[in-house]
Each structure stands twice: as structure tokens, then as C-alpha cells.
Design goal:
This protein has 692 residues and is of the alpha+beta class. The protein folds into 4 domains: 3-189, 3-Layer(aba) Sandwich (Restriction Endonuclease), CATH 3.40.91; 193-362, no CATH class; 374-609, no CATH class; 614-681, no CATH class. Helices cover 48% and strands 15% of the residues. Strands 7, 8, 9, 10, 11, 12, 13 and 14 form an 8-stranded mixed sheet that branches. A 6-stranded mixed sheet has the order 1-2-3-4-6-5, with helices on both faces. A hairpin with a 7-residue loop joins strand 8 (209-213) and strand 9. Helix 18 (477-499) packs across helix 19 and helix 18 crosses helix 21 (538-558). The radius of gyration is 27 Å and the shape is globular. It starts with a helix and ends in an 11-residue tail after the last helix. It comes from Litoreibacter roseus. InterPro entries: AIPR_C (IPR018891), AIPR_N (IPR055101). Residues 38-186 form the Abortive infection phage resistance protein N-terminal domain.
């Protein structure tokens, strides 16, 4: 077995172990659960390297006469023009093997049948409360906007079938992509999705791109200056999409989600001035072919491999949108480009640096989205040094993909060492940067952002982190311990949705349960106690379990017929859920009312909270900032409120304006209820009797 085969086999073993771990505690009643977990892991990775956008896992299989329709998930691009359907061929065997090409073709036919039926009347025969209803509804809804369908076949085996002939459905192009374990390894473990981007510029321009070669000033890179016709840039982005953009640039565009209006206006009104107005793009390549004409001294870039745009994502996306949506003529549009060939040994060092410095003119800190950001480096260091109580086990932060297995192979050479590594650093205590974002955003009451999906959730988290913490701030040991406590809460919510075998929206229910727990308790949960126990009490598990059903029902009901998965991504969905008056037990779980993080500046001096106090806090947070301001002003003007009461109302208006990042204390909540009672009794001019 070659070294490459050994690496692929190790990668697959890790993947199978992750699938098996995720099955722990899950209901066997769920159909093809291992296959769906495999799809979930793979599509999350593919989203990270921009092969797909917004993946959702959902199983569907049904016979229609002699044909079968099958799907394990779908994805819809942000602009709803590209629809992906995933179908898995998962073996799960102990050893790496090969899958017969006919099995892959059969899976592709089944996925195609699903796509045909979903575009038709399949929706009419499905239960609106089931997960497959949401999937079929989304595919059907996008039928009019769709410009491209892709069926992506995922397998944990090797496949000799590398291509399936393209087709069409309803006049819309349909392509097939086979992602076997070897290609998955290249895309994910090697971290080089750019390897698959090969551009032959002679396909677009007879001689290639005319260029200037910069003097050889460094052994680390070689630079060229060129003008790229706007039509070529459009076609490249149309083919490769976000894969064309270096990861940091993709993350920024996801976090902001706005197309530069100035660029678009120039393309519409004065495309001939685009070159004069636009700063151009900065790109890197892994390989480059340049044709040199000795007679004229002219140079032309003919071919490149590994093309990545590290600055100019807005320009590229804007040109694509203007051409596709506004039908702008790009014949007079040219984009200045600096193209750098990077020494392969220095790619990981130089490319992120180019991304950062090339964008510094716009005050965009691209390094915030990198695994090498100081925040992530520090979390990684803390995970290696901070042991769980008892000093027998620790959590493992996988800052870069595959780091867990690398660490195991580096430190565990014998079977005994491997066993000891697994005992000290169990796989179920491994977490990566996307999971970290989900833990923390759920606790910070942003389930709508968590519901956006892995990469967008992470991008939003990093953007928020850079805006809420001072420059140079780094997490300390206390922050890390409480982060792990939040991870334990989140994982418990996920476990509940699996054990209860919710037929749909399990991921959304989990994040909303954690967010509601944080909200309903005013974030007054004993995180230090959870860290010490490395678990939560049976009472808290029971409370979260009861709430999960009510939250599930409220999400579906409040969607009012909209796609539930999409509804969960909206801030309005969270507003509905946090207004729920879910029952509290007469005796609260022991974690409620415990210690708080000092960084949250919301410390509770009286940890012995009661259900009555929590209800009062919840009522306070149901009043809008505008209403608290109105009550404060009314009380001061009429004299119905004392000065200190008007002051409390004004203070609470500030809390509400900041979306209750800081919750009222029990004492504030008690006084606030008295203020609301006075305001209601005296007919104060505010909202619906104090409710938001």
C-alpha cells in the first residue's frame, strides 16, 4: 500500500469513527441513520470548501412503479439559482474498498427521479410536519429561479467512475458529481479545493491573457500583471462559484452578504469606465504557463491551476450578478489583476497574509476568519493544557481539519498508547471551529444565526467576535471552562433531539432549546458547576426535553406555511420563540441561578432563584425598548412613577435596545413588574399592555 493509500485509509477510518460516534444515543427507528450522518459530515466539509452552499440533510426514499426516488439531502444557493441533491452510497465497512460503477449510476438515477418528482406534484402526498416535506417544498419553490441542478453522489469507497454524462430536467441543465473517498480526502483533508480549478485562457482568448512579468524580487513568489475581460471573470465565477474565492474572502462575503452597489451601478451605467474606477483583483495560483514571444517580447498567460481570488470577491460577485440578473454587456469591462505564483512550501503562510494585507485598505480583517487567528490558537492551547476535573481527561479543539488524528498518530505509537490517548482525549470531546461557533451563539441567544448552517454561522460568529471584544483580547482559562460548559449544554440538546427521534428539524430545535434556556434564565446557569460535573443534572435534561416539544411545535406553527428550515434562519422566528411562556418546575434544576461569567457582566448576587423571579425576568424581556422608554417618559411627566422607577424603566429600555444581551436582575425584575402594574392601571400609552 502506497503512502497516499495509507493516508486515505486513515482519513476514512477517522470518518467512519465519527459516524459511529454520532450514532451514540440515537434512535434506531430513524431511517438509514448512519447514511444520513455520513451525508451530514460530508456536506458540512463540502460547504467549508465551497463545493456547495447551505446543505441540509434529509432522507427520502419511495418507489414509483419500477423506479425509486431517493435523496439524502439538498442545498440551495443564496441566489436560488443552483440546487444540489445529495445521495449517499455508504458502506461503513472496516476496510477501504471500491464501489461498483453501476451502484453509483443507480444512485444517480434515483436522485434524478427524486428531482423530477419534487418538481412535480410529490409535495401533495407528504405530511407537512415531516422533514421531507420541507425539502420537497424548497426544491419545488425554486423551480422557476433554478438555472442549474447538480446531483452529488457521496461514497466512503473508491470509485473508478469519475464522470456521468450531463443531462437536463425541464429545460434546466443537470450535472453529476461523484465525490468518492479519495476526492473527499483531497478536497477536505488536504485542504486544497483550488487543486480542481484549472483554467485554460486560450479557450476564451486565442493567445491567452496578455501580461507583464514583475522583476524576480523573491524566491517565494512570482508575480504577473494582467487585464482580465469581464466576460471571462463572469464565466469563471459562473462555473466555480465561491470555490474561486480564497476561503477568507468567502467568509467575509458570507458575513456581510451585500453586493457593492457602486460596482453594480458602474457596470450598469458606465461599463467603459469600470477599469478606471475599480481597484481590480488579487489572485494566487499553484501553477502557471506563460507563452513568451521572443520577437515582440509579449507574454501571455495560457493556463493556470489552483486559481484563487484573495482580494476582489465583491468585484467578481458583482460582475457575475450584473451579467446574469441585469443582462449587462461586459464587452467593454476589463478588470486589472495581480496574479502571484506561490512557492508550494509557503502557500499556508503567504496566501492568508496576501488576503489580509490586500484587503487592509478596506479595513477588513480577513485573518479573523482563519484558523490561525490568535483567538483559535489560544483556544487550541487551552484545550491542550486544561484538564477536566480529576485530571484524567481533556477536551480537544480541532483548530484545523484532521488535527485530532494527526495528534493521535504523533503521540500514540503502540496499541497501549492509542488506548490511553482515546481514554484521555475521547472522540466525543473533540470539537472544531464550526461547532465552537454553534455552542457560543446558541448560548448568546442567536439560534437564527446557528440555523444558517456551519460556514455562515462561523463567519457570523467571527465577525461578531471582532466587534464585541477589544483588539488584542484573548480567551483565558475561565472563558475556556465556561465555553466547554456551553458545549455540554448544546451537546445535551442535540442528544435529546436524537433520543426523542424528532422526524424533522432536529438541529434547529437543539439550538433554539439552548437559546431559550439562556433567555428564560437570564443566562443565570451555573456554568462552573457544569464544567466541574462535566454533565448536566437529570432535572435540567428533563426540562430541556419538555421544552423541546413545545419549541418544535411553536416553530412549525409560527412558520405559517413557510419553509420551516428557512424560517428558523430569521430573527423573527427567535422573537416568537423567546416570547413563549414555557412552564417552569416548582423546584428548579440545580444549575439554574448559579455562577456567571464576569465577561457577561451579569452576575447574580442571589443564586437562589425561584420560578416566580424567572417569570418576572421573562416578563420584563417581553417589553420592547420603545415601550420602556414610553413608560419612563410617561411616569416622569405625569408623576405616576417615582424618579427611581422612571430610572429603572429607562435602564431596561437600554437592555432591550441591545436585545437583552444583559438580562435584568431578580431585583430589577421585581421592581419592573410593579412599574408595569402601575402603568397598566393608569392607562400609560405603550404597547399591548406591556407585551412586545
Amino acid at each position: 500500500m502506497s503512502s497516499a493509500d495509507i493516508d486515505i485509509a486513515a482519513f476514512r477510518s477517522s470518518l467512519i469513527a465519527e459516524v459511529n460516534e454520532a450514532r451514540t444515543g440515537s434512535s434506531a427507528a430513524l431511517p438509514d441513520f448512519s447514511e444520513n450522518i455520513f451525508t451530514d459530515i460530508c456536506t458540512s466539509w463540502l460547504s467549508e470548501v465551497a463545493v456547495t452552499e447551505n446543505p441540509e440533510v434529509c432522507h427520502f426514499e419511495r418507489s414509483f412503479g419500477t423506479t425509486t426516488a431517493r435523496s439524502n439531502g439538498y442545498a440551495v444557493s443564496d441566489d436560488e439559482t443552483i440546487i444540489d441533491v445529495f445521495v449517499a452510497c455508504f458502506g461503513g465497512s472496516e476496510h477501504l474498498g471500491s464501489i461498483p460503477p453501476e451502484d453509483v449510476r443507480r444512485a444517480s438515477r434515483q436522485a434524478r427521479t427524486f428531482l423530477e418528482k419534487a418538481r412535480g406534484d410529490l409535495l401533495n402526498s407528504l405530511d407537512p410536519a415531516a422533514a421531507d416535506y420541507g425539502m420537497v417544498e424548497r426544491v419545488k419553490h425554486t423551480k422557476e429561479m433554478a438555472e442549474k441542478y447538480r446531483i452529488i453522489i457521496l461514497t466512503d469507497s473508491r470509485c473508478s467512475l469519475t464522470a456521468i454524462e450531463a443531462d437536463e430536467i425541464g429545460g434546466i441543465a443537470l450535472s453529476f458529481e461523484v465525490i468518492d473517498i479519495e476526492r473527499l480526502y483531497r478536497l477536505v483533508q488536504a485542504g486544497l479545493p483550488r487543486d480542481e480549478i484549472f483554467v485554460d485562457f486560450t479557450d476564451y482568448v486565442q493567445d491567452g491573457l496578455s501580461c507583464l512579468h514583475a522583476p524576480e524580487i523573491s524566491a517565494d513568489y512570482d508575480a504577473y500583471l494582467a487585464l482580465i475581460p469581464g466576460e471571462i471573470l463572469y464565466q469563471l465565477y459562473d462555473r466555480y462559484g465561491p470555490r474561486l474565492l480564497e476561503k477568507n474572502v468567502r467568509s467575509f462575503l458570507q458575513a456581510r452578504g451585500k453586493v457593492n452597489r457602486g460596482i453594480r451601478d458602474t457596470l450598469r451605467a458606465r461599463p467603459d469606465r469600470f477599469l478606471a474606477y475599480n481597484n481590480g483583483i488579487v489572485a494566487t495560483v499553484d501553477e502557471i504557463e506563460v507563452r513568451y514571444d521572443r520577437e515582440t517580447g509579449a507574454r501571455h498567460i495560457t493556463r493556470v491551476r489552483g486559481l484563487q481570488i484573495v482580494n476582489g470577491g465583491q468585484t467578481t460577485a458583482s460582475i457575475h450578478r450584473a451579467r446574469r440578473e441585469d443582462k449587462v454587456d461586459l464587452s467593454s469591462v476589463y478588470v486589472p489583476a495581480k496574479i502571484s505564483l506561490i512557492d508550494a512550501r509557503r502557500i499556508d503562510e503567504i496566501v492568508p497574509a496576501i488576503s489580509l494585507y490586500a484587503n487592509s485598505q478596506n479595513n477588513i480583517q480577513m485573518a479573523d476568519f482563519s484558523a490561525n487567528d490568535p483567538y483559535h490558537v489560544e483556544i487550541s492551547r487551552l484545550s491542550a493544557q486544561v484538564w477536566c476535573p480529576g485530571e484524567q481527561t481533556r477536551w480537544f479543539y480541532e483548530r484545523t481539519r484532521g488535527e485530532y488524528e494527526v495528534e493521535k498518530s504523533r503521540t500514540a505509537k503502540t496499541p497501549a498508547q492509542v488506548r490511553r490517548f482515546n481514554e484521555r482525549t475521547p472522540r466525543q470531546r473533540k470539537f472544531d471551529k464550526v461547532e465552537l461557533a454553534k455552542f457560543l451563539l446558541s448560548w448568546d441567544q442567536r439560534p437564527d444565526k446557528v440555523s444558517l448552517g456551519g460556514q455562515k454561522c462561523f463567519a457570523w460568529f467571527m465577525q461578531d467576535l471582532s466587534e464585541t471584544h477589544s483588539k488584542g483580547w484573548l480567551p483565558d482559562e475561565s472563558y475556556y471552562r465556561r465555553t466547554i460548559a456551553k458545549a455540554i449544554l448544546y451537546k445535551q440538546a442535540v442528544s435529546i433531539t436524537r433520543k426523542e427521534a424528532f422526524p424533522a428539524y432536529r438541529a434547529q430545535i437543539a439550538t433554539y432549546v439552548v437559546a431559550y434556556l439562556s433567555h428564560r434564565t437570564g443566562r443565570q446557569i451555573d456554568l462552573d458547576g457544569i464544567w466541574k460535573a462535566q454533565d448536566v443534572s437529570a432535572d435540567l435534561v428533563q426540562l430541556m426535553r419538555e421544552w423541546s416539544y413545545e419549541i418544535r411545535d411553536a416553530i412549525i406553527e409560527s412558520s405559517n406555511g413557510k419553509n420551516v428550515t428557512e424560517w428558523c434562519k430569521k430573527a423573527d422566528c427567535w422573537k416568537v420563540i423567546r416570547r413563549l411562556e414555557l412552564a417552569l418546575p416548582s423546584t428548579l434544576p440545580p444549575e439554574v441561578g448559579g455562577t456567571k461569567t464576569s465577561s457577561e457582566k451579569n452576575r447574580n448576587d442571589n443564586p437562589d432563584l425561584t420560578p416566580t423571579e424567572l417569570d418576572a425576568m421573562h416578563r420584563c424581556q417581553g417589553v420592547s425598548a420603545q415601550d420602556w422608554i414610553a413608560i419612563s417618559q410617561w411616569g416622569a411627566e405625569t408623576g405616576h412613577l417615582k424618579d427611581w422607577q422612571s430610572g429603572i424603566a429607562a435602564t431596561l429600555s437600554g437592555y432591550a435596545a441591545r436585545d437583552w444581551i444583559k438580562a435584568p436582575s431578580p431585583k430589577q425584575a421585581k421592581r419592573a413588574l410593579e412599574i408595569l402594574q402601575i402603568a397598566e392601571a393608569e392607562g400609560a400609552p405603550f404597547g399591548n399592555n406591556g407585551t412586545a
